[in-house]
Amino acid sequence: MGNITYNLNGTMFTFAEETGALVLLSHPGCGEIIQDGGGLVDLAWPVKFDYEILRCDPCGKYFPCRPDISFNGRSIRLRYARLGQNTRTPDLPALQGGVAAEITLTACEDGRSVALSCRIDNHSQTAVRQILFPNLTGLQPVAGDATRFTGLQGYDHPFRELSDEGDARDAFYAVKPSVCGKFYEGGGYFGGCLKVGRWFDYGGLSGGLSVFAQHWGYGPDKPGDMGRQDVTWVKLDNLSHTLRVAGVHDVTVEPGGTYESETYVLTPHAGGWVQGVAPYKAWVDAHKHRCVPVPQSVREMLGYRTIWATEQYPDDPDAAIWPYDAYPVVAADMAEHGLYKLNVWGMFEWILPLTRERFFPQQGGFDRLKEVVAEVRALGVEVIPFVSWLSIWEKMRARYGFEQDDGSENGWSENLKGIPVFRTPYMRRYCCAFLHKHDNPLWIDDIKAALRFLRDELGTPSISWDQYILDGGWTLYEIIDEYRRETHALYPEADFSAESTFFFEADIDQLDYTWDWIYRNGDIGQDPAPYLHVVETTRPQMIVDANPLYLKYAFMDNVCINVYPSKPENVNGSALIRDFPALSATIKHCAALRKAYLPYFTEGKILGDCVLSQECGAARVTGYLLDDRMLLFAVLREDASDGVEISYDLTPFVHVNSFHTSIRDEENREIELLVLPAKGALRLQGRTGTLLSIEFVPAGD
C-alpha cells in the first residue's frame, strides 16, 4: 500500500492512497504529532435493529472504497464515492447507494494554518445519525504522560487520566473513562467547562496542535442553542498509547440529504499553547463587539467581596446574616484589604415589579438601605445588588401567566433550617418557573424599570445578574445592552457582572467580570490563562473562602478574586476577612503586589506557563509580557531549601538577549538580583506555598 505526502503551509500531510487515512502529520514545531492515523471522518449509520452499531469511515474493513485524491498546490481534496463499513452486513436494501464524503484541506492565508472541512452526501435509504469530524487519530504523546488537552479554562492530562491502570479498572466498562474517553463542550465559564470556547490545544511546552471551529453564536448543530456546542471527544487507546480527538456532531442526515461541516483551523506550533492560539484569538477579536468598554476599575481591581446578606426569610431574625446596618462593617473590612466592590445577595426580595416594598422593613426598609449605600460609598466601597429575575418565583407566577403545574418548576430554596438545606422539598417560597423565552412584554418592562430603580433611586448603577442565559433569543441581551449604554453615559465606571452559564460568545460582549460558583479544586489543571489571553476584556472570577494558597493562585492568574469567607455551620460569606489572619495577610500582600506590577496585569499579555521550556513539578508558574519586559509569578509546591530549578525560555516573546532579573518575596522585598540570558534556568528558594515574583528587565534599560 503506497502513501502520498503534501505540504500545506509547512505542515506535511501523508495519506494512504488506498484509504485516505492520515498516516502522518508532521511539522518542524511539533514533530510527528500524528503517526499511523486513520480516516478524518467517522459516521454512525444505524439500521434497526440488528445493525444499530453500524458505522462507516474511510478505513472501514468491509466494502472499502479507494478515494480520489487531488492536489492543486494549495488544497488537498479526498473524494469517496462510498465510505467503508465497520461491520459486515447482508445485502440490506437500506444501505444501497452508501454514503459519500468529500474532505478538503486548504492552506490558510496566515501562512501557518490549514483549514479543514467535509461534505457528506447520504445516498442510502437510512439516516446518518452522527458525524465525527475532524476525527484525529494516532496522536502521539509529544510530551509523554504530561501531554495536555488544553481549553480556555485549563487542561487535562489524557495520557494519565484516561489510562487503564490500577484503580481506573474498578468501574463498569460502559462508564469507565479509560474505555469511554471524555467529552468536552463549548459553552460558558461556569460548570467546570474546561473548553469554554470552540478551541482546544493538544501538546506540551515543546509543541502542539491548536484547533478551532470557525463558527460564532447559535448552532450549528443545535440552531436554538449557543452553549453546549462544538463537543470534542478525547479517547486514549490504551493498546497503542495514542490519542483520538474528534468533533462530535449529533445530527441527522436523512436519505438523500447533505451535511456540510464548519471549517476547522489547524495550527501546528512550537512551544506551548500560546504559540498556536493566535488564529483563534484573531477570530474572537473579529466577532466580539463590546457594548461599552470595560471600566478601568474592573481592569485594575484585585477582586471583590460577596456577602449572602439574608436567606430571604426576613421575619426570622436568624436569617439576617448581614442586616443593612452591618454593611459598613463589611465595607471597612474590605477597604482595609484593598477590595472596593461589595456584591450583595439577598438585599431585597427578588420579586417583580421592584418597588420600595420589596426592601426588608425588619432591617429599616428602603430608606435605611439607601442611607447605608451612601455610608459604604463614603468608605470607598461600591454596593452592587445581585438580582435573580430570570426565574419566575412563586409570588410572580400569576403576573406573567405561569401555571403552577406548567412542568418547568425549579426549587431554589436554600436555608440553614431546611432539611435538606438546598432545594428543600416542602419550601415553596423559592419554587419558580424558569423563563426560557424572554419575549413577555410585561416582564421586559418590569426588568427595565427594576434596573433603573436600583440605579436612580437606590444609587447602585452596577448590577450582578443571576443566570445570564440567552436560550430564549437575544431579548435579554438587548435589555442589558440598552441599560449598559444608558448607564455608561451617566456612570462610566458602572459595571455588569453575571453568572456565565452557557454562552461565552455572547457573554464577553457585555460582562465585565463573572460571578460563578467556581472554586479552586487544587493546583494542577485549573488555568484561565488561555481565556484571559484570548478574550482580554471580560475577567473570570474565582471564589476564595479562607485558603491563602488558593488566593495566591487566583492573584497570579489575574482573575477577579471573589473573597467569600465563611463561619463554620453558616452560609457562604458569613465571616469577615480579618477573622482569618493568614488570608488577611495574603490579601494585603497581593493587593500591594498588584499595584506594584499593575501595567503587566492591565496592559501586558498573559502567557501562562508557556514561558517554561520544561514542566516544573515543584512550582506553579505564570508569565506576563509587557513590551520586552517579562514578569513571572511562581508558587512553590514543595519546600525548597536547596532551591527549585525553573527552566525558562523567553526567546519567542522578546527581542533582547540579556536581562537584569529581580526575584522578590510576597512583601515585594528583593531577595536576589541577577543578570540572566533570555533562555536559561534559575533557582528559587522558600517553603511550600511561597509566592515569588521574578521580573526580567532588558539589561540595557
Give an account of the 3D structure.
With 701 residues, the protein is an alpha+beta fold. The chain folds into 3 domains: 285 residues, Beta-galactosidase, Chain A, domain 5 (Distorted Sandwich); 199 residues, Glycosidases (TIM Barrel); 95 residues, Golgi alpha-mannosidase II (Immunoglobulin-like, Sandwich). It contains 14 helices and 41 strands. The strands form 7 sheets. Strands 7, 8, 10, 11, 14, 15, 17, 18, 21 and 22 form a 10-stranded antiparallel sheet that branches. Strands 31-30-29-25-24-23-33-32 form an 8-stranded parallel sheet. A 7-stranded antiparallel sheet has the order 9-6-5-12-20-19-16. Helix 5 packs parallel to helix 6, helix 8 packs parallel to helix 9 and helix 12 packs parallel to helix 13. The protein starts with a strand and ends with a strand. The model has no long low-confidence stretch (mean pLDDT 94).
What are the defining features of this structure?
Beta-galactosidase, Chain A, domain 5; globular; single chain; 14 helices; ten-stranded antiparallel β-sheet; Immunoglobulin-like; 701 residues
SSE layout and pairing:
Elements: E1 3-8, E2 11-16, E3 22-27, E4 31-35, E5 42-44, E6 55-57, E7 68-71, E8 75-80, E9 84-85, E10 99-107, E11 114-122, E12 130-139, E13 142-145, E14 148-151, E15 154-156, H1 158-161, H2 177-180, E16 182-184, E17 199-204, E18 207-213, E19 231-237, E20 242-249, E21 258-260, E22 264-270, H3 278-287, H4 296-300, E23 303-308, H5 327-336, E24 341-345, H6 365-378, E25 382-387, E26 391-393, H7 397-400, E27 409-411, E28 431-434, H8 441-458, E29 463-468, H9 475-490, E30 496-500, H10 504-510, E31 513-514, H11 529-535, E32 541-544, H12 548-557, E33 560-563, H13 581-596, H14 598-602, E34 605-608, E35 619-626, E36 629-636, E37 640-649, E38 658-664, E39 670-677, E40 679-686, E41 691-698
Helix pairs in contact: 5-6, 8-9, 12-13
